[in-house]
Amino acid sequence: MLLVPYLLLLLNYLVSGYGVLTLFRLRLKTAYMITLSVLLGVAVASVVPFLLQLLFIPLTPVSVFGGLILTALALNIPGIRRMRKEGRTAFRRSFAAPPFRILPYEIPFIVIFVFFAAVSIWRCYYLPPTSRDALSGPEAIAEFAVREHTMINSFFGIDLSTTNNQFKSPFLISLQVICKMAGFPFGQIWLSAVFVSFMVFLYHALKEKLHPIIAGLLLLLFLMTPEVYAYTFMILYDYSNMVFFFLSLWFLFGYFRNKTSSWFYFSGLLMGIATYIRSETLVLALLFLPPILLAQARERMTVKKIALADLYFFLPSLLGYLLPGPFYIGHYLPVHYDVSGLVNNNLTNWDPLFQRYSDILSHLIASTFGVRLWGYIYYFAAFFLVAGMFFPGRFNRDARNWLYAMLVLYLGLGALGFFLPLIDLNDTTKRELFKMLPLLLLYLANNAALIRLSQWISRWEGSPIVIGKRLAVAQPSVPAKKPLAPANPTGNKPGPRSSKKRRKK
Amino acid sequence: MKSFILTIVSFLLILVTLNAGYYPTWFKSKPVQYWTDLMKEMNDTLDPSGIMKSRYGISYVISMRVKEVIERKNIPNVVILFEPNSYYRDSLHIYPNVHAPEPAVFYYYTGLEGVWTNSPDVGKANYLVKVTKKGVTLDAIKNPEQLRQILAFYRKFTPIL
Questions:
Q1: In contact, A377 and A225? CB cutoff 8 Å
Q2: Contacts with A260 (C-beta within 8 Å, 6 or more apart), sequence order
Q3: Is B36 an 8 Å CB contact of chain A?
Q4: pLDDT for the residue numbered A465
């Protein structure tokens, strides 16, 4: 009975997200276009009720769904105009679509992915939210927002001395309001759209560089991280934050390769969404300024151009921080949040900082507890990090970028825990570490040993094809005497330059 | 033929992963158990309230019983005082199986205002949810003196989540 509302919601996500993609004139392969559209659509939907609230418009089904439809239409106006000028080819051209084809040896992996997805989707749909962080904040606010037509509702009139979850981003509240209004008593079902889209995106991203069997194995290891899998059906901020943070870096590193400015600005938008979901992402975003400046210097951009480009890049993140944070909390909510009282006052004592770095490694990762959280994915990555050192192109540019991202995340999370002791190790830092896993996977996708293994399998296979085209084997982009393989021989189309580079083996 | 061999390799890789180290323990106790639950849940006829009861457990059941009583007696401006969870832990030894919801979660469950013994608004409390090993009672707090006595009794038990 709820299938129709869910399909309509998905359609709305798809159309809104597609509109955003066309605004950036991004032309990607179909799998990326669809999954990104859904993910961006969820992000757009998460802003609509919040904006209505900022404008003091009552949150009724008419205003919320009207707002969603109008936003979807507005975002597609440029695309519709282009279509009117150029006909349907404009729409078709926006998809760089290789013929869809699943190879027989992908099927076992797909079957198990479907199993994991089915369980997760069902639990999202059937069970109510359970995490205390949701129940004592965003979920309760959303529940009463549906009844009272405002996010600033009677929930703020009760004793909230045991929680600070009422100050968290409206991202979750907005999405819960939409799903509850659509007829889902527990909301949550938006998370399934995020989860499934991200899995499909990640699988294709891995297959760009690796043989489908290895890509499948990596995705299986990711799916089988017990802690992260639990958050595919337990609404909170961390899973979605991980998704958009990763996507931002995927496009940023893509920009480093293809120098296409739209990828750079799109990456900035995605980082802005990640910051909107979790405000401390702003700090992590700023830590990517050095490689951005380096890339811009290599392009010989003028200082003025660099300043302007970087301003545009960080603007969404600043808005994502300021709008739901100081602006909304400071000027709309009847209760205020004194962050100054939560900051570490003893910044000269660095022992807690080093202790935090040590604890992240020894307690959260390399421990029995770590195995219960993440499975063996870190051990797998460590093994191939060492193994990769024995192969040419061991630290190719992409591998370096993803390793840098992992280092930034590790250092950033430790520093955040040091400055804000509220970010404790076992809860917040643990969940912030979700972001490490897709970075780890993309490092592995650029690991010289795994690439060699992929090449070996595809050579043995003899008919190296993937999704209708040649097999995914990629070369670490280092000037090697003996080229390992084409930079992107898959036929996949991550970006304009890489597609130009495509060549036959 | 090679494609077939690679399909077998895929199967083997999945099997090895599912049976390596901690993975089988987790896989059986979580995804497989969830699948078993799914099969049962698809056939049940519980409404959202019934699902919440089975999911949230005793804390939700107590909260909803309180709500029922308050609604039945049509009592206005109710503020419910909960005993500290440390009392259930240290004195009754029934924690965490039985625990009081925090005020925000109690409001989410019931739409009623609740307070803990250390809440800034504890002075407004006019009903006490009292849990004993025999059951749960909802006692009226008739005057500030009675409230003071109740708070004095629980003073040594710090409220915990």
A1: yes
A2: A254, A495, A496, A497
A3: no
A4: 47
Q: Looking at CA atoms only, how far is residue B2 from chain A in angstroms?
A: 6
By C-alpha distance, the chain A residue nearest B1 is A461
In a domain, B72, yes or no: yes
Its domain, for residue B129, covers 48-153
Give every residue of chain B whose pLDDT is below 70, as ranges.
Answer: none
B30: in domain: no
What is the number of domains present in chain B?
1
Distance (Å) from the C-alpha of residue B34 to the closest C-alpha of chain A?
A: 6
In a domain, B1, yes or no: no
pTM of full prediction above 0.95: no
With CB atoms and an 8 Å threshold, state whether A213 touches B13: yes
Domain-embedded: residue B17 = no
Cross-strand bridge partners of residue B130: B137
The model's pLDDT over A293-342, given as tens digits with 9 standing for 90+, comes to 999 999 999 999 999 999 999 999 999 999 999 999 999 999 888 777 78
Q: What pLDDT is attached to residue A392?
A: 83
- The SS3 of residue B83 is coil
Q: Which of the residues in chain A have pLDDT under 70? A: 1, 88, 90-100, 463-505
Residue A393: the pLDDT is: 77
Could you tell me if B6 lies within 8 Å of chain A, comparing CB atoms?
yes
What residues 176-195 of chain A have any CB closer than 8 A to a CB of chain B?
185-186
Identify the pLDDT of residue A422: 86
- CB-based contacts of A492: which residues, under 8 Å, 6+ apart? A29, A98, A204, A207, A208, A466, A467, A469, A472
ipTM of predicted complex:
0.94
